[in-house]
Amino acid sequence: MSNPQQFQFAGGSLVADQLDGEVVIVNLDSGVYYSLTGVGAPLWQALQEGVESSQLARQVATAFPESNLEQLTRVINRLLWQLVEEGILSQVSGDALCAVAPAAEDAAIPGGELLKYSDMQELLMLDPIHEVDNTGWPIKPQL
Questions:
Q1: Across the strands, what pairs with 22?
Q2: For 89-118, what is each residue's pLDDT tens digit?
């Protein structure tokens, strides 16, 4: 009998928001940002709602009723693995996650990969908004 997995958003220097069917996650320490689309967006929503890991595929399938449940489960497990590996989620209980290799037929399911971008890394790291205190921003020099 398997032990259901539970995950939580790692938080800290990570911020996430869902806009128009896409989840954008930004690591404010590294300047790297991530995108979840397709299956990833309802998966993220289900994780935020605390849906048990054993029910994730069924929950996501409501947004993708044409998808095969076995394929969907494989894609979700791969996404969960990627989210944990990138430090976006932490696994708080349950059986250990295993890396899941993509199968050719999984390509038919949209959004089966966590997309990682570093093209704006320098700009995100330069953004002084990270260092705002109660006085606000921009901080004007004292004369």
A1: 19
A2: 988 877 777 777 777 777 778 888 899 999
